[in-house]
Amino acid sequence: MRTAFVDVDTQIDFMFPAGALYVPGAEKILPEIARLNRWAAEHGIPVISTMDAHAENDAEFSAWPPHCVAGTLGQRKPECTLVAGQRFVRKQALDCFTSGEMEPALRETGAERYVVYGVVTEFCVRHAALGLLARGGRVEVVTSAILHIDEASMRTTFDEIVRRGGVLRTAGEVCAG
To answer: What is the pTM of this model?
Structure first.
Protein backbone atom coordinates (compact mmCIF):
# COMPACT_ATOMS: atom_id res chain seq x y z
CA MET A 1 0.00 0.00 0.00
CA ARG A 2 1.49 3.34 -1.09
CA THR A 3 1.99 5.78 1.76
CA ALA A 4 2.47 9.55 2.10
CA PHE A 5 3.35 11.49 5.22
CA VAL A 6 1.42 14.72 5.81
CA ASP A 7 3.25 17.30 7.94
CA VAL A 8 0.59 19.86 8.90
CA ASP A 9 1.55 23.52 9.42
CA THR A 10 4.80 23.02 11.33
CA GLN A 11 5.84 26.62 10.71
CA ILE A 12 7.94 29.03 12.74
CA ASP A 13 4.97 31.22 13.75
CA PHE A 14 3.30 28.19 15.36
CA MET A 15 6.30 26.22 16.60
CA PHE A 16 8.43 28.72 18.56
CA PRO A 17 7.70 31.06 21.49
CA ALA A 18 8.58 34.14 19.41
CA GLY A 19 6.09 33.07 16.71
CA ALA A 20 3.04 35.21 15.97
CA LEU A 21 0.57 32.42 16.86
CA TYR A 22 2.72 30.16 19.03
CA VAL A 23 1.21 26.88 20.21
CA PRO A 24 2.56 26.50 23.78
CA GLY A 25 5.04 23.61 23.89
CA ALA A 26 5.14 23.09 20.11
CA GLU A 27 8.93 23.25 19.99
CA LYS A 28 8.99 20.06 22.07
CA ILE A 29 7.42 18.00 19.25
CA LEU A 30 9.92 19.18 16.62
CA PRO A 31 12.27 16.21 17.19
CA GLU A 32 9.39 13.79 16.48
CA ILE A 33 8.35 15.72 13.36
CA ALA A 34 11.93 15.81 12.11
CA ARG A 35 12.26 12.08 12.85
CA LEU A 36 9.12 11.27 10.85
CA ASN A 37 10.11 13.45 7.88
CA ARG A 38 13.63 11.97 7.79
CA TRP A 39 12.34 8.41 8.14
CA ALA A 40 9.89 8.95 5.29
CA ALA A 41 12.58 10.46 3.04
CA GLU A 42 15.03 7.65 3.85
CA HIS A 43 12.37 5.08 2.88
CA GLY A 44 11.27 6.79 -0.34
CA ILE A 45 7.94 7.89 1.12
CA PRO A 46 6.65 11.28 -0.07
CA VAL A 47 6.30 14.05 2.51
CA ILE A 48 3.56 16.60 1.86
CA SER A 49 3.87 19.67 4.08
CA THR A 50 0.96 22.05 4.38
CA MET A 51 1.85 25.69 5.01
CA ASP A 52 -0.26 28.68 5.87
CA ALA A 53 0.60 31.42 3.38
CA HIS A 54 -1.52 34.44 4.23
CA ALA A 55 -1.70 37.84 2.56
CA GLU A 56 -0.97 40.81 4.83
CA ASN A 57 -4.67 41.71 5.01
CA ASP A 58 -6.03 38.14 5.03
CA ALA A 59 -9.66 37.75 6.11
CA GLU A 60 -8.57 35.05 8.60
CA PHE A 61 -6.94 37.77 10.68
CA SER A 62 -10.37 38.88 11.88
CA ALA A 63 -10.52 35.60 13.83
CA TRP A 64 -6.81 35.00 14.54
CA PRO A 65 -3.84 37.32 15.03
CA PRO A 66 -1.77 37.86 11.87
CA HIS A 67 0.52 34.84 11.32
CA CYS A 68 2.40 33.01 8.57
CA VAL A 69 2.27 35.96 6.18
CA ALA A 70 3.69 34.77 2.83
CA GLY A 71 7.39 35.52 2.49
CA THR A 72 8.03 36.22 6.19
CA LEU A 73 10.31 34.30 8.51
CA GLY A 74 7.27 33.13 10.50
CA GLN A 75 5.80 31.46 7.41
CA ARG A 76 8.88 29.25 6.94
CA LYS A 77 9.33 25.68 8.17
CA PRO A 78 12.00 24.98 10.80
CA GLU A 79 15.19 23.69 9.15
CA CYS A 80 15.06 20.42 11.11
CA THR A 81 11.77 19.49 9.38
CA LEU A 82 13.07 19.91 5.82
CA VAL A 83 13.94 16.86 3.72
CA ALA A 84 14.79 16.24 0.09
CA GLY A 85 11.79 15.91 -2.20
CA GLN A 86 9.34 17.43 0.29
CA ARG A 87 6.21 18.84 -1.40
CA PHE A 88 4.84 22.11 0.01
CA VAL A 89 1.12 22.86 -0.17
CA ARG A 90 0.24 26.48 0.50
CA LYS A 91 -3.12 27.32 2.03
CA GLN A 92 -5.02 30.32 3.39
CA ALA A 93 -7.61 28.50 5.50
CA LEU A 94 -7.76 25.91 8.28
CA ASP A 95 -8.72 23.21 5.78
CA CYS A 96 -5.82 22.27 3.49
CA PHE A 97 -8.31 21.02 0.88
CA THR A 98 -9.58 24.54 0.14
CA SER A 99 -6.36 25.73 -1.49
CA GLY A 100 -6.51 23.74 -4.70
CA GLU A 101 -2.95 22.50 -4.14
CA MET A 102 -3.66 19.49 -1.93
CA GLU A 103 -5.57 17.33 -4.41
CA PRO A 104 -2.81 17.39 -7.08
CA ALA A 105 -0.17 16.68 -4.40
CA LEU A 106 -2.15 13.64 -3.25
CA ARG A 107 -2.65 12.37 -6.81
CA GLU A 108 1.09 12.65 -7.49
CA THR A 109 1.87 10.34 -4.56
CA GLY A 110 -0.68 7.69 -5.55
CA ALA A 111 -0.98 7.01 -1.82
CA GLU A 112 -3.79 5.16 -0.12
CA ARG A 113 -2.35 5.47 3.39
CA TYR A 114 -1.56 8.79 5.06
CA VAL A 115 0.47 9.40 8.21
CA VAL A 116 -0.63 12.77 9.63
CA TYR A 117 1.07 14.98 12.25
CA GLY A 118 1.73 18.64 13.09
CA VAL A 119 -0.25 21.48 14.64
CA VAL A 120 -2.89 22.11 15.87
CA THR A 121 -4.75 18.86 16.66
CA GLU A 122 -8.26 20.28 16.91
CA PHE A 123 -7.90 22.65 13.94
CA CYS A 124 -5.68 22.02 10.93
CA VAL A 125 -4.64 18.44 11.84
CA ARG A 126 -8.33 17.58 12.28
CA HIS A 127 -9.24 19.05 8.88
CA ALA A 128 -6.39 17.22 7.15
CA ALA A 129 -7.19 13.85 8.76
CA LEU A 130 -10.95 14.07 8.16
CA GLY A 131 -10.42 15.31 4.61
CA LEU A 132 -8.17 12.35 3.83
CA LEU A 133 -10.64 9.93 5.41
CA ALA A 134 -13.48 11.48 3.37
CA ARG A 135 -11.44 10.81 0.23
CA GLY A 136 -11.14 7.13 1.13
CA GLY A 137 -7.63 7.19 2.52
CA ARG A 138 -6.35 5.11 5.40
CA VAL A 139 -5.30 7.68 8.00
CA GLU A 140 -2.93 7.29 10.92
CA VAL A 141 -2.58 10.30 13.23
CA VAL A 142 0.74 10.36 15.07
CA THR A 143 -0.16 11.35 18.63
CA SER A 144 3.47 11.90 19.69
CA ALA A 145 3.99 14.44 16.88
CA ILE A 146 0.93 16.66 17.26
CA LEU A 147 -0.09 19.26 19.79
CA HIS A 148 -3.42 20.62 20.92
CA ILE A 149 -4.61 23.86 22.49
CA ASP A 150 -7.44 22.36 24.55
CA GLU A 151 -7.40 18.89 26.12
CA ALA A 152 -11.17 18.31 25.80
CA SER A 153 -11.16 19.40 22.14
CA MET A 154 -8.23 17.07 21.49
CA ARG A 155 -10.15 14.11 22.92
CA THR A 156 -13.22 15.01 20.87
CA THR A 157 -11.04 15.27 17.75
CA PHE A 158 -9.40 11.89 18.42
CA ASP A 159 -12.82 10.30 18.97
CA GLU A 160 -14.11 11.76 15.70
CA ILE A 161 -11.08 10.61 13.71
CA VAL A 162 -11.28 7.07 15.14
CA ARG A 163 -15.06 6.92 14.65
CA ARG A 164 -14.55 7.77 10.96
CA GLY A 165 -11.93 5.04 10.53
CA GLY A 166 -8.66 6.71 11.47
CA VAL A 167 -6.01 5.13 13.70
CA LEU A 168 -3.92 6.73 16.45
CA ARG A 169 -0.22 5.76 16.52
CA THR A 170 3.07 7.02 17.90
CA ALA A 171 6.13 7.99 15.88
CA GLY A 172 7.90 4.91 17.27
CA GLU A 173 5.16 2.65 15.92
CA VAL A 174 5.21 4.34 12.52
CA CYS A 175 8.99 4.24 12.19
CA ALA A 176 9.14 0.60 13.29
CA GLY A 177 7.56 -0.28 9.98
So the answer is: 0.97
